[in-house]
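Box 3.1 A note on notation
Throughout this textbook, protein chains are presented in two layers. The first layer is the amino acid sequence; the second is a token string describing backbone geometry. Keep the layers aligned when reading.
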Amino acid sequence: MPKGSPELTSARKEEIINACEKLYQTMSFKEITLKEISAETSFTRTSIYNYFQTKEEIFLALLQREYELWNAELEDIMLKFPSLTKEEFADKIAHSLESRAQLLKIMSMNHYDMESNSRPERLAEFKVAYGNSLRIVMRCLEQYFSEMSIGEKQKFVYTFFPFMFGIYPYTFVTEKQRAAMEQAGVNYVFMTIYEIVYNCVIDLLGN
């Protein structure tokens, strides 16, 4: 364990996560290494091992932070809006994810590799944030659509969350991918994060 106060440990972790986030804006997951992450921090690569043992742990921590930010936004929606119609709820959820492209981008990566290359304690920390997201969305359904049965609410949650993993690839397409689809005769219809999420929520809520 690193020596120092809890505040220093937390600050060092945040610095590492921020460095990873900065690199991820212009580089792919595969291209990013611990050496490059350390070059964006104020300390050495060896020091990083006091906080994270693998690149996957750092990305998992970044994903955890993104979930926590989304959770806070959902909680804020519930406080500000005691009741919402189906269309209003879909609008709020769509806007909440529209501002969390980073969350959706990391989600679209291979979770199996990130989780399998992280220590159990790091994975458990991440699962707390993920589990809170599941519970908060369920609470949203309980608050806004009390007429839904438990089974209907569970179906919503366990359909919507797997759906989230595919949002980014459908809403962010490179020119190389677009050219390949045209060459393959695939009729790609561009949709924004807002549009694809709004439509999904409306469909899942049904009548």
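The longest helix spans residues 55-80. The chain has twelve helices and no strands.
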